[in-house]
Amino acid sequence: MNRERIYNILDLCMEARKKGHDCFFRYHPHVSFGQFDVTVYLNGWDKDIEPDRCLYLCADGKKSYGMDNIDEVEEYLKGLI
User: Fold this and answer.
1) How wide is the angle at C-alpha 23 spanned by C-alphas 53 and 18, nearest 5°?
2) What is this structure's pTM?
């Protein structure tokens, strides 16, 4: 996966924060193909609420079962800002 696109997703998460949304961006290198996830709390995180959306990406850029397409993730995050 293009590093610039991953950086862009991280940047979109940070921009969403300015609008009051908390987006947790995580990298899981222990998974054989590498995995990123973005957990979104619309209107901010609180210990007593469930996330509004969980997005999963493969580091190798391939879409597989249970994973989201990077284009869809970018579009969703852009919609928050």
Assistant:
1) 125
2) 0.87
